[in-house]
Amino acid sequence: MKQFHTPQSARFLRARYVLPLVLLATGGSALAQDPQPLMGQPLLGLTPTQLQHFEEGLVQFSTPLTEAMGLGPIFNEVSCVSCHNIPAVGGFSTRRVTRFGKAAVGPVPFDPLAGLGGTLLQDQSLDVACREVVPPEADHEIHRGTPALFGAGLIESIPDADILAVQAAQPVSVQGIPRYNQPLESPGGPMVLGRFGWKGGVSTVESFSIDASLNEMGLTSAFAPTENAPNGDVGLLAGCDSVADPEDHADAAGFTLTQRFTHFQRFLAAPAQTPRTGMAGEVLFEQVGCADCHVSSFTTGTVPEAALSGVLIRPYSDFLLHDMGALGDGIVDGIATETIMMTRPLWGLAQRSALLHDGRATGASFGGLIDLAVAEHFGQSDASRIAYQALSSADRDLVADFLASLGRAEFDWDTDNDLTEFDWFFLEPLMTGPAPSVPLTADDPGALCDVDADGDFDLVEFGKLQRVWTAQ
Ligand code: HEC
Ligand code: HEC
Q: Which atom, in ligand 1's list, is nearest to the CA of 61?
């Protein structure tokens, strides 16, 4: 994990506030709530063994794969972190990958050009003789962005039945469709409702690890043992691939690389939301129908890991497929046809500078990005787009303020996922002490520091700030 703070900053805080903190600590005050983890940090409540698996997984996720380990022969990048790194390991990035195919004409359906290496292009290769290109047969090409993986284990732990219950309650005009996929790691097991990828084509973290290992890096494994041939040319493959498949083997502790990648992602904390509830913009977000698809909360089911079980999460997605009209990416992938995309979680939005699957909403302030993203919402989201655009600009600002709270941790004034003197410069004047005459509301700047939501920013919260600061 990155070390952001300087020793000076920690000393600065300690020197000025050590006395009241000592009093607090010895007073044994009951701490109602703890600040949420920053992005890239592990879930709270992991066992020591799970924490160790998280740390070891982080190393593998960040380590470049070599040819001898199984990289290539064709690939997009050499490590998971190459694409998943903002604002921390496991995050999103500006890297986009190319998908291609031949668009439908009349009764002739979309052709994924599977025999020519479609739909995913691998744009790098070990040997230039094996480099893939978008074949001339393709007349449709799009560039899909990289989502962040924070909270992936929690998303995985939402019971299918709870997603189906959301679907059953949706107004008919916006009702989504569940997509079932076969988890790669349990070929004979039950199908599971999809919740990852822009088109919902993957249901579990381990499946995505296996899939991305093969398709982004060229690492074959027990459940995906066949290399991608460059533009489908198996003859070329023989000359460019020197390592026998499957390439992913168990290490001394008995875990394969794809399992290591899985550990790291599964134990990543969800993006923070501050304040946790109660902003005026969320009411408007519900009123204009955004929340019909961007469903605020789920509670995870009972899974083997206690830290992932029975947790209330606020991802703002229904994990269902919707017909988005012209926003669709034109690629057919199973039941997710040209115009059909999965509702994306909105947690983590505060960090992003490009929105939507191809990043087309970009180059504006945060509020401007939201306006641009909504302006591209067609199909089943037509009514919601129109209702949003009819809001006054002051109301749209409130919606943007609310959406900016998704991905912001307590005390992180500038929303850059770390705490520094710069944040403290703005936070210090916001201290109210206990029971101010006018209590803080969720829409006040000071709510950023009101960890226990009791309407003030007092020394209890200051103590929490100091602990987070010194721990980061
Ligand atoms: C070349 C860039 C690139 C590399 C390398 C890469 N990814 Fe991704 N990742 C993406 C893109 C693009 C998507 C969106 C996929 C889609 O739906 O088309 C994605 C999506 C994901 C998702 C789904 C997240 C969600 O919420 O939908 C997971 C999980 C994931 N990647 C894990 C991994 C792992 C594990 C590795 C390493 C084995 C990896 N990725 C390597 C670009 C990359
Ligand atoms: C009918 C369902 C539906 C409704 C209603 C809806 N959305 Fe979406 N939203 C989606 C889907 C599907 C996507 C993924 C779009 C894509 O693939 O580019 C999305 C994506 C987004 C994104 C970009 C997320 C990202 O990771 O880039 C934002 C922001 C967003 N929606 C905000 C809103 C707001 C604000 C409203 C209300 C005005 C709204 N949405 C209403 C389905 C919906």
A: 37
